[in-house]
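Exercise 7. Predict the joint structure of the components listed below.
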Amino acid sequence: MPDRRRRTVLGRRASRRALREAATGYLLVLPALATFAVFVFYPLGRAIWLGLYRTSVSPNLPSTYVGPSQYASVVSSSAFLGSLWRTILFAVFTMPAGIALGIALAMLAHQRLRGIQVFRTVFSSTVATSTAVASVIFFTLLDPQIGLLSYWLGKKGGAGILSDPTFALPAVSVVSIWQNIGFTFILMSAALQAIPDTLLDAARLDGASSWHRFRSVTLPLLSPTVFFAIVVGIIGSFQAFGQIDILTQGGPNNHTMVLIYYIYQSAFVNNDYGLAAVASVVLFAILLVVTLVQFRFVERRVFYAT
Amino acid sequence: MPESNQPDTSGRGEQAWLPRKPLDRRSFLAGATTLASAGLASSVLAACGASPKPKTTATSTPKAAAFPIGAAARASGKPVGITLWHSMQSANLEALTTMTDQFNASQGDVRVTLVNQNSYPDTLSLYTAALAGGNLPDVVQIESEDLQLMIDTRSVVPAQSAIDADHYDLSDFLGVTVSYFRVGSTLWAMPFNISSQVLYYDQNAFTHAGLDPSKPPTTLDGLRGAANKIVQAKVAKYGMALKLSPSTFDEWLAMGGGTLVNNSNGRQGRATRVTFDSSLGKSIIGFYAQMFSSHLAQPASATTYDNLVAIGNGISPMTLETSAALGTVAGLLGGYKQVKLGVGPMPGPTGNGGVYVGGAGLYMVSKSPPERQDGAWQYIKYLIAPAQQATWAAASGYVPVRKSAVDVPVLKARWASLPGFRVAYDQILSSPVTAATAGAVMGPANQIDTAIQDALTSVSQGRPAAATLAQAAATANQALSSYNSRVQG
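Solution:
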């Protein structure tokens, strides 16, 4: 980068001009910054502060200052740790399978065939479904009395898959995978189309098999998109709320009580805002660390074509 | 958008605090990823940050002022406008709207506006949110089990103060409808829409199994016997569908004369520990375990009407469900021609107890000015008058809260044509007024419900009944002490 050398020869006037330009830049960023300050930084500060209080059973009543000990007691509670563990399980269930399916469908649809657009539309259609709609569809399909899926799985009668502690979280995961498949498919399709044919042609001329071409050419070139999908997927699985609220409400026996639902229940069902604030701040910290770790370690293995 | 965060600085005058790289795929994806993570974290935090601001000073407790009877009539600007937040839908909503229109037309002092808040949980959370700062209604319909929480919000004028000031007579009311909303000697809310659990069964299945359809089982042993006969005769796969819902467990506890929590179900003092892990509670959960393990009962989801569908499709010809569902049940089963719906009183343990009531009560809000408090009371009195309770019960399927409503022609005619609607009334009428049949008043009602529901789910999975009940009691006790520590004042 030639900037440093150049900067030393610039005169004071140029530097002042640069300063003015930077000021203009900050001025332009100001509206976005103000929005962030009001809707992100301020609530963040308030949540951290609220975590120091034991809030009353009703929000019109005074709260008691209990200090940082509330952070320690929440973080070490089995309810919190259990919900964190189930969130990790949920991410493990949904993310690898979702990304693999997305790549597989994108490869399938990345053919020059008549009518392939129909399949592309079908594969990406779930992106147009809201979580609520997807959940209600699967709720009906999984119903033990009238559900088609329950019938096929031999689970007719009884309390149903969603009331079964063993299968509830996998079932919710399947719904999430299904709902996110459209988004992953579109991401991967776009990435596939950006891969220059010349590279694959060269590999073909070198005698690489189709699997070899996929592994050694396509996949490395997809890696930035896969990385993006992993980060978004992890965040998405920490964010999974709608499907759990509609399908299981955190049950049976807390087996689908992921962190975000635990926060929701604590705050808006039990009116325990202090506890919920602590859990939210911890969730924020976890996501921050996860994202940093991903950038630090995973990104090194990503191949960026420039 | 990511582009705007990465200004093109390839030109002159670059500074250290400005990004030095032009936008490329790498930084686009990196930027988008960072934005996405920031987005989640902020949305989570915003949800909690929106909660009310903590205060460290205690507010003064509301003083017990005399109820302003007649304030609406004396108000300078008439009619006095009041608002009711409710959760009634479809047929119930129509009936409530009609009654309210009639009330508005019947006098010139008070004008009621209905606000539909969709469901009991929604109404409750909107109400508590409004307490922190927002528009409150003058009357709010809250689900029965949230009584302790409503008391603890310190935002309610007890119905008792209006009753005392107005010399209102409660002797016509069904005992357990009033005892539910009474703590100590204070009636907090007026019972309005009341129900209890009943037995729904297919009379044709009873006939095929050699059971008398006119004599449905009334005890737990009878229930097991009937289920056994149905399964033995191969009339259905299961004898009954048993919901994994705490309401049936709670109802059986009350029928056996047992309490859910201490201090006489929270009536003589704040509940501090649960009592449902008593020998009665153990025998009830043992009954569940036995019914499931012997395949006489199929477990049914707590949150759906699958148990009713199971009657229709012939899998389980008996189930226990709230009487408020009767309209739905009758409509649903109308589509199944082979089913002849029967309604029986709730079978349960024999003891000195009886059924307790479910449903909702009407609360008056203390922040309302005197003329609106009085208006609220006038409106509530109208809704619980015999004529209105008869209309209401006939249209909705709820139980009338007072005895004289039964003689009103509209309800008489309805019950004559559909005797099933009378079953819940009769069993509520005959339920003795005790601590057990008053039902439990406890702060974390929702969490205790969940603990019991979890125990029932475990039992349906074949876990040992006594151990799961002990676990539920431990969880519920923890919820109680956590709630009680947050009450303050």
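Discussion. The mean pLDDT of chain A is 87.
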